[in-house]
Write a structure and sequence with these properties.
By secondary structure, this protein is an alpha+beta fold. Helices cover 50% and strands 15% of the residues. The protein is built from three helices and five strands. The longest helix is centred in the last third of the chain and has 35 residues, at 96-130.
C-alpha cells in the first residue's frame, strides 16, 4: 500500500489557516499554492498602484518660479516647457536684453525644479519595483 506524501509547512505562515495553502511534500512539490498566488497578486497590485501613482504625479509635475527681482514669473509643465509667463508692469526701466536674461534664467530654474521632481518620482517607482 502506497503511503501519501508527508506534508511540510513552509514556515512563512504564522496562522494555521494559511499553513494549508503552502504545504509542500518533502520533495518540494506544492500541495496547495493558494497562499503563494495571494502573495503574487498582492505584490502585482501594489506595483500597479505604484505605477499609477507615479504616472499621475508625472503628469502633474509643474513649477512656478519668480525671478529674484520680482519682475518675472515663469511656470513650466511636466515636460519642462514654459506654460505661463508673468511680467510685472514695472519693467519699463529694464533693458530688453536684461529682461530676456531674466526670463531665460527663471524658466531654466523652473524647468530644473520639474526635472528634479520627475527624478524623485521615478526613483520612488524604481524602488517599489526593486524591493
Amino acid at each position: 500500500m502506497k503511503r501519501p506524501p508527508q506534508r511540510v509547512g513552509c514556515g512563512n505562515c504564522e496562522r494555521a489557516t494559511h499553513r494549508r495553502h503552502c504545504e509542500r511534500t518533502k520533495d518540494g512539490d506544492a500541495v496547495n499554492s493558494g497562499h503563494q498566488m495571494d502573495l503574487v497578486v498582492e505584490r502585482a497590485t501594489g506595483l500597479a498602484n505604484s505605477l499609477e501613482d507615479a504616472l499621475h504625479d508625472l503628469t502633474r509635475a509643474r513649477a512656478r518660479v519668480t525671478h529674484e527681482s520680482g519682475l518675472v514669473s515663469v511656470e513650466v509643465h511636466e515636460n519642462g516647457g514654459m506654460s505661463g509667463l508673468w511680467i510685472s508692469e514695472s519693467i519699463a526701466h529694464v533693458d530688453s536684453r536684461e529682461l530676456a536674461a531674466m526670463i531665460t534664467a527663471t524658466a531654466a530654474r523652473a524647468a530644473q525644479m520639474v526635472a528634479d521632481r520627475r527624478e524623485r518620482i521615478l526613483a520612488s517607482l524604481q524602488a517599489a519595483f526593486t524591493d
